[in-house]
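Technical note accompanying the year-one report. For the benefit of new consortium partners, we illustrate the data format agreed upon in the data management plan: each record pairs a sequence with a structure-token string. No post-processing was applied to the example shown here.
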Amino acid sequence: MPTYQFEAMDATGQTIKDVIEAANEEEAQTTIRQMGYFVTKIQMKNGAAAKSAAHKKKRPFALGGAKTKHICAFTRQLSILQDAGLPILRSLKILESNNKPGKLKNALMDVCDEIETGSTLSEAMSKCPKVFSRLYVNMIKAGEAGGALETILKRLADFLEAAEALKRKVKGALIYPIAVVIIACGILALIMTFIVPTFKKLFDEMGMKLPPPTILLIAMSDYIVNYWFLLLVIPFCYWLISKLVRKFKHGRMGFDMYLLKVPVFGKLIELNILARTTRTLGTLVSSGVPILEALNITRETAGNALFERIFTKVTDAIREGEVISKPMRENSTPGFHPVAAFYWVLMGSFPGVMILSVALTAGRTASGKGSAGAMQTLLQVGGGVCALGAVGCLIFYFMKMRARVIDELVVNMVDVGEETGELDTMLYKVADTYDDEVNVMTEGLTRLIEPLLIVFLGVAVGFIVISLFMPLVSMISQLS
């Protein structure tokens, strides 16, 4: 039977140090209380801990990480069990037995083992960083220190559920347009692969002089049939270049600056980050986490290098005696970054690069009257589009690079919160405001994407029909 070493206080307030044998920590605490002592510290002796570790349950094999929705459910259930007055170890064992095999179940088994050896809940959870984030562990630690673990668990469950609900809403809004784009691209690929080559064969047999739209359509068809892999290789090369540049510190900073200024989607990303970081900081402050530690945790949850830099500057300023709002206002302007400009050039040149690739590959297999001249024109058009796109995107970047990423509303609310001592309340209000804005933008984008897709399909199908029927109309008029 395991041996537990404990410290307790008797009725007169004197400290008692002793050892006791019990099946588990709960039974040991119960026995000590029956002896008339109040337990202040208890832990399993080293030899017993080693023996207990040798008899650990076998962990089932699990791939991937723990899903956020499962962690949300676990946190809510743990808060209910703690509110009901159950010991923490018993609560964890109940939830561990009810969970399906996976990363979360394995982590809970490890947490239970750590607690049985005398660790606190936050110490045990900190040893499972792939399941319980630093934010999660620090909030639990604050709850243990303040003696309000059930309250902290409720706040933590509310925070995780709100974040997960927003994530699900954004994902759900993107399912429909992505499905439509995939189906539309599949239909257009079938037309280009099977229908257009049939017309091309007919036009070659007739020896007709084809108009430029028909030559372009046939060139695109040949490109898709013979060089379809380039449709994957060229975007992959762009992605690979972006990935390699982001491996460096300044590369990641430039990419994140670029991402925040992308039309429409950049604003959505910015609002989402602001909602998440302000809610995280508000939750940590209201839970009693020291402000410097809270800012460090919030910085890690930002997920954007520019916001991480802002929170680092704020932390440094607080160490020097400043308030939060002043450095937040001063450092919220991104400014110029050469890597961000490089990404804008890549973005602007992409359409031109695709046109050039079509012209270069189709020029090798061009046939029919006027094809060579049309391909030469297409090359010129591709080069022009490439240059104009790059220059246009750079001009747009220079116009937007001084725009602040943290609105004056956030700074003012933080300033008022610091003056009144209600910083957490103000941060919650800011987070609620931006959550509402994200919801409105998401719904608006969903409604806007549908008509844009219809217009795109109409233009694509209309171009194909016109390009194929122009030579046929010319041939019929000659025959008549």
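Partners are asked to follow this layout when depositing records. The chain is about 75% helix and 5% strand.
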